[in-house]
Amino acid sequence: MEHRVANEVEVALGSCQAVIAGDVEIVLFRHRDGSFSALEDRCSHADVQLSQGNFEDGIIECMAHGAKFDAHTGRHLCMPAVTPVKRFEVRVRDGEVFVNID
Questions:
Q1: Of 53, 31, 49, 38, the residue nearest 5 (C-alpha)
Q2: Number of domains in the chain
Q3: By residue range, what is the domain housing residue 81?
Q4: Tens of pLDDT, residues 66-89
Q5: Global confidence as pTM
């Protein structure tokens, strides 16, 4: 099911923000090229919000222990994380950003 999570202009290029889609906490990324991606807002290593971490060049770093994830795919890139973070499909229609949580 798709949920509207933001207006396109509310999310600055090269930034991320916490949003809610239904009852799922999501970290929404807007990459420097203007594209969007979305992951579950939880580090797979520790129960910490990824949206509180450092996002740069398509990589999100968990603020707790430095685990890094590809913001496009959710793939873990370094220890201490050993599993990926769930990825969600994002669509932009008429300036509105939607995340599919199915």
A1: 38
A2: 1
A3: 2-100
A4: 999 999 999 999 999 999 999 999
A5: 0.96
